Amino acid sequence: MELSSLTESPSDALFDGGALSGTDERQAVRLWLRLLGCTHRLEQALGQRLRRNFGTSLARFDYLAQLQPYPEGLRMKALSRRLMVTGGNITGLTDQLLAEGFVTREVDVNDRRSHIVRITPQGLATFERMAVAHRQWVDALLAGVTEPDRQMLHRLLGGLAKSLDALPAD
User: Fold this and answer.
1) For 5-19, 73-87, 90-104, which range has the lowest pLDDT when averaged over its residues?
2) With contact defined as beta carbons under 8 Å apart, do 33 and 15 qualify?
């Protein structure tokens, strides 16, 4: 499948009204809408699968995914930054995962205003089961994109990320 047809569907007209034209003054907005539409569809599909197969949400999966490589834990503020959500969202997720035994939360001995969150052995085992399924689902969702197109898309989006990172803060 060609990369350009990855998102072709009847709902695309709602997002961008058709093909991207090099001379169209709305090109940047149309590209952004295409990226947003693809992201939304992928998140929706993964979220549905996580709910159906594990009774959890994509937000909870992402939370555990951020903690998994850090057995020493992360400060809640760092976790909030990594997940790009508010502190209130992190607190709510932490409370839920704490109640289920998936994480621990302790006051940071170096900064009593901060809390460190760690994934528990139970949380790690649960996350690892979900991660195996998640990888399979992502592979299936992207199966229609050829390997060369995947590599090109990864490279192009990496360039976009660098350019966004270089923008001055408002």
Assistant:
1) 5-19
2) yes
What CATH number is associated with residue 55? Answer: 1.10.10.10
What type of residue is 77?
A: K
Report, as an integer, the average pLDDT of 111-116: 88
73-77: average pLDDT: 92
Percentage of the chain beyond pLDDT 70 is 86
Is residue 120 included in any domain, yes or no? Answer: yes
pTM given for the model: 0.79
CA distance 100 to 94: 10
Q: How many CB atoms lie within 10 A of CB 37?
A: 17
Q: Is 131 exposed, middle or buried (0-12, 13-18, 19+ CB in 10 A)?
A: middle
Q: How many domains does the chain have?
A: 1
Comparing C-alpha atoms, which of 121, 111, 123 is closest to residue 76?
Answer: 111
Q: Per-residue DSSP letters for 50-93?
A: HHHHHS--HHHHHHHHHHTT-TT-EEHHHHHHHHT--HHHHHHH
| Tokens encoding 82 | 């990594």
CA-CA-CA-CA torsion for 105, 111, 112, 114, nearest 10 degrees?
-40
Q: What does the pLDDT look like over 29-47, one tens digit per residue?
A: 999 999 999 999 999 999 9
